[in-house]
């Protein structure tokens, strides 16, 4: 029987270091413990918060329910052919440790996603992505427990409905499943993705055919450490807003008024804007309001240097959204999920 801890302080369990008390907290290592935790929540009629590394949530108050920290461990090769290896990884494994493990074992594909904080089980929820790669390219399938029935279900890559920082688990199946393991299809031979300009620039001294996945990983780590604040030093959740996607017509009008606007290609007739650029232009970079702040080097990152409340962080986020909307007519959407 896993230990249910009452009045549990979550401050060290969310990378924004927001103080928040959970009515109950439980850490589960196996599917059986997970089922017991879900049964406890059902019997006691408690709302649930599934927790990995707490690097993509904002706790706006105390959590009146059960927080279930997923700590299952394990990696297993379940299949292979000449080209690929299928690696099944437990949801509680640390994401970056998985990337290191894959490289140490000559399994390729995850290198661009080095140093993203959090757990393997949370990674499909928002289809984590960085430096030109998203995990939708690498997930073969995943296993998940239905929260209501306790039954285990397999989701194929297609049925996860991955999109930009999005999946079915943030949409029609929100709060309905606990991901228990993810099976990745990794390559036996390197197949590098150097499309991201900053990444190619970081490796400019090496001929493309000589670049190794290990070098890509090291370059990604280097760029991230220069650009992004370490949550252990300055509490944050990485990008606070998604890059907004607008239609070509709206973009043309914005571009006419803002010739230096930063944009990326998106689907047909759509353009993705750099939310960080919009926030910077609206004058927010480096500003602090009510204990929460906008990072000095990267306007897309909100920080919580004084370990203030989630309310303080959200109040700043609202001010930013409002001013970006007033200046550009673009509504920013938050990336992390808010609880309760
Ligand atoms: C410094 C920094 C940099 C970052 N950079 C990136 C980046 O480059 N790209 C990117 O995509 N993200 C980035 N992030 C965001 C974050 O790392 C990812 O979203 C990560 O996948 C969150 O993992 P986690 O375990 O911390 O999730 P948590 O914050 O614990 O949870 C996030 C959401 O997933 C749910 N969840 C967690 N585990 C499970 C599970 N097993 N089953 C079902 N639901 C679950 C939670 O309930 C919650 O809704 C960054 C964050 C930080 C702090």
TrEMBL record:
InterPro entries, per database record: FAD-bd_PCMH (IPR016166), FAD-bd_PCMH-like_sf (IPR036318), FAD-bd_PCMH_sub1 (IPR016167), FAD-bd_PCMH_sub2 (IPR016169), MurB (IPR003170), MurB_C (IPR011601), MurB_C_sf (IPR036635), Oxid_FAD_bind_N (IPR006094)
Q: Which cofactor does it need?
A: FAD
Enzyme Commission numbers on file: 1.3.1.98
> SUPFAM superfamilies under this entry?
FAD-binding/transporter-associated domain-like, Uridine diphospho-N-Acetylenolpyruvylglucosamine reductase, MurB, C-terminal domain
Q: Which Gene3D superfamilies match?
A: 3.30.465.10, UDP-N-acetylenolpyruvoylglucosamine reductase, C-terminal domain, Uridine Diphospho-n-acetylenolpyruvylglucosamine Reductase, domain 2
Cell location: Cytoplasm
Report the catalytic activity.
Answer: UDP-N-acetyl-alpha-D-muramate + NADP(+) = UDP-N-acetyl-3-O-(1-carboxyvinyl)-alpha-D-glucosamine + NADPH + H(+)
Q: Which UniProt keywords apply?
A: Cell cycle, Cell division, Cell shape, Cell wall biogenesis/degradation, Cytoplasm, FAD, Flavoprotein, NADP, Oxidoreductase, Peptidoglycan synthesis
Instruction: Quote one Gene Ontology molecular function term.
Output: UDP-N-acetylmuramate dehydrogenase activity
Does Cytoplasm count among this protein's keywords? Answer: yes
Listed pathway(s): Cell wall biogenesis; peptidoglycan biosynthesis
Q: What is its main location?
A: cytoplasm
Query: Could you tell me which residue ranges the FAD-binding PCMH-type domain spans?
Result: 17-189
Catalytic center residues: 165, 239 (proton donor), 335
**Pfam annotation, one family:** FAD_binding_4
Its domain of life reads Bacteria
- Record HAMAP family: MurB
NCBIfam families per record: murB, PRK00046.1, PRK13903.1
Identify its protein family: Belongs to the MurB family.
- Briefly state the protein's biological role: Cell wall formation.
The name under which this protein is listed is UDP-N-acetylenolpyruvoylglucosamine reductase
